[in-house]
Structure of UPAR/Ly6 domain-containing protein:
Amino acid sequence: MDKSLLLGLPVLLCCFRDLKGEMGPFRAALSHLLPYSLAQIIEMIQCRTCHIQFPRQKCSRGRGLCTAVNEACTTGRIYKNDGTLWLTFRGCLKNCANVNNIRWSVYLVNFRCCRSHDLCNEDI
């Protein structure tokens, strides 16, 4: 293996992890060279997917996971006019916004978005 690669490895590792807090001066110098961490540039989380899920039933279409890259996990719920839940769907969505009671024909639609942790749209 090339010696220059081996000598550069400790510098590279200090960018990712500072176990004992001894890399403070190096971290400050590197922060000017690398102002954003990789996690800030590429935000990825896993989201639950389900295209069709009726109340009190398991997911009937599109069950699985998606990877939200600079996106959000979403849960959509469609209610009948009388307020009873008719359908739920989950997935990844780029421009997600929390909305309540969007009228769609004789239904009302609610969206919830989250980015807090993997599979966060299972909870909502």
Summary: The chain has three helices and six strands. The two ends are 50 Å apart (CA to CA).
